[in-house]
Amino acid sequence: MAKSKNNAKKVSCISVPSQKIDSLSSSSLHYLFFSPKKPSANRFFGLKWYRSSRFWFLALFLCGFPGMLKLWYTPDPSVPFSPDPCVTSQSQLQKSFSNRHTRQQLGLVSNDERNGKNDQEVGSVNARELKFEVGFGSNEVKNESLKGAVDFQGRISGGVEEDSEFWKQPDGLGFKPCLKFSGEYSKESELILEDRRKYLLVVVSGGMNQQRNQIVDAVVIARILGAALVVPILQVNVIWGDESEFSDIFDLENFKRVLANDVRIVSSLPSNHVTRRPVVESRTPLHVSPHWIRARYLKRIPWAPADTYWCSGSYLWFILAPQLNREGVLLLRGLDSRLSKDLPSDLQKLRCKVAFHALRFVPPVLELGNKLAERMQRKGPYIALHLRMELDMWVRTGCHPGLNHEYDEIINQERRQRPELLTAKSNMTCHERKLAGLCPLTPLEVARLLKALGAPKSARIYWAGGQPLGGKEALLPLTREFPHFYNKEDLASAGELKPFANKASLMAAIDYLVSEKSDVFMPSHGGNMGHAIQGHRAYAGHKKYITPNKRHMLRYFLNSSLPEAEFIGVMKELHRDSLGQPERRTSKAGRDVTKYPVPECMCRDEHDDRSHE
C-alpha cells in the first residue's frame, strides 16, 4: 500500500529561546528556517542519517555554541579589575573573577555604551534635567513612572527609596548641640578681649580640610595665650597650586562675629607691632597641652635659664618663653595635630564653636553647594561617597588600585622617586597593608559593601574626590551597579563652575557641602574630609555615616567560596554599630571632639528617658 504524500513530508520543529537567536550566525539561521537540498543517494554511501532530527539538533547546537559563548562571557581587555588589588597578573585576575563576578556585575562596558548622553551640554534647565535623568554611564532616560509618584517637594512617595531600610537614620538618643561655657571662662574672656599686647600669627598648610583643622587649633591656642589672632595665612598648596586666601574660602565677617566673645580676631598686625621681630616656632611637638603652651611662650621655666636648650623626647627645644611678652608677636607653622585632643571642657566647646559655627564658607560657595544638593534631593534621598583614588593616594598608602601592571608600575615609579611620600608602614607588603585596613577601598569593594548593606540599585550617588587613577574607566564596577552616579561637573553647568576653576580649595568646599547634606555618607578611606563630615553630621543630629570596617571585612571580600547571602549577613553584622550612632569621645583616648562631639559639645534633656542609658 503506497504511503500518502502528507506522511512522506513530515516536518520536525525545534523550539529555540528568542534571546539566543541574536547569538547565532547567519549560516545557522539559514539551516534553521530553510530545508537543505537533498544530496544524491550515492554521495554519502546511501546513509539516511541526515534525515534524523538528532542530527539537526546537534548541528544547530554546534553552530550556535560560539554565539552563546560570546553572550555568556566576553573578555574586556581595557581594565581588568581585581577583588585583590595586589594581584595584577592577567591570568590571576581572570581566575579570581570567574569564581565570583560576571561581566554584568563588573560593569565592563564599552566607551560607546558608557558615553552616550553624558557629553550633552547642561547649560539650560532642560538639558540639566535630562542629564539628571540619564546619570553617569547611562544611555537612556529612566522611566520614572516605575519609581512611584513624585510629591510636591520632589521626593518619591511609594517607591523603593522611602521604604528601604538602608535610608533609615540612626537613633540620635536625644543628643543636641549645647555650648554652654563656664562662668570662669566668661570672666577670662573680658581680660583677653581687652589685651592689646600679644598677637598670634599662624600659617596653615595642606588641603582645605586640613587647613580647617589647623585654624580650629589656632583659635584655641590664641585663647590659651590670651592673644589676638591675626586672620590665618593659607600656605600655597604645592600640589594644586591654589593661592586662595582665608577670605576667598571662609566668611571672614561671620568668623569674627561668632568668636567675638572668645578671641579677638584682627585682619592684620597693628602698626606698632609690624616692625617687631616675631617669635617663630615651626617645630611644635605633637599633642601639646595648654600648660606646655603657657610655659613655653608666656613665662620662664623656673629651673631653666633663658637662651638654653632642653630635651623633650626626640626633639631639642630652645627656651624662648620671655620673648612673646617682650616682642608681642608669635608666629606658628605646621599646626597639624600639634594641640592635644584632650583639653578642658571649655576649650573643647570652643573647638566645636569654631568648626561648626565660625568656619562658614563664603556665600558663592554656599549658594552653589546648596543648589547642587537640592538637585540631588529632587528625586529622593541620596548617598555621598568620598572616593580616594588619586595617584598620590595610592603612592602615599603603598597600595595598588587593582587595575593592571601599567598602573602599578606608574605608582611604583613615583614611589621610588619620592620615597618620603609613603606614609604607610614600609616593611609591609601591599597585601599585608590591605588586610590591615590601610588601603582605600576600590570601586568594586565600595559597590559590594553598599549592596550588602542594602543600598538599592536605583540609589542616587554623589561622588566627591579628585580624578581617579585610570580615569572614569576605573569607576566602572561601581557605576554599573549604581548607574545614577554624579559629581559636581555632572550637576552644574560650565558657567556655574567657572568662578571656581583652578581653585582646588573651593571645589573641595563644594564637595563638602553636598556630602554633608546627603542622607547617607561613606568614605572609601579615612582622611581630613571624612573626619570633618563625620563630626558635622553628628552635630547636626547624627545623620547616617557608614564607617567601613576595612580591617575585619576585607578577608571576606577575598573569599570567593563564601555564599552571597552569608557575605551580606557578615557585612551587616560588622557595620551594625558603624552607621553614625552617637559615640562618646571619652570612650577612647586621643579622639578629636570635632569628630566625636559627645559629650562636651552635645547633651541630652535630663527629662529624656534615654539620658540615663
TrEMBL record:
A GO cellular component annotation in the UniProt record: membrane
List the GO molecular function terms.
Answer: glycosyltransferase activity
Which intervals of the chain form a coiled coil?
Answer: none
Q: Which keywords fit this entry according to its UniProt record?
A: Carbohydrate metabolism, Fucose metabolism, Glycoprotein, Glycosyltransferase, Membrane, Signal-anchor, Transferase, Transmembrane, Transmembrane helix
Q: What is its main location?
A: membrane
Q: Which Pfam families match?
A: O-FucT
Residues crossing the lipid bilayer are 55-73
> What pathway does the UniProt record associate with this protein?
Glycan metabolism
Compartments (UniProt record): Membrane
Q: How does it sit in the membrane?
A: Single-pass type II membrane protein
GO BP terms in the entry: fucose metabolic process
Which family would the database say this protein is a member of?
Answer: Belongs to the glycosyltransferase GT106 family.
Q: What PANTHER family does the entry give?
A: O-FUCOSYLTRANSFERASE 20, OS02G0726500 PROTEIN-RELATED
Q: What is this protein called?
A: O-fucosyltransferase family protein
Species source reads: Salix udensis
Q: Which taxonomic lineage is given here?
A: Eukaryota, Viridiplantae, Streptophyta, Embryophyta, Tracheophyta
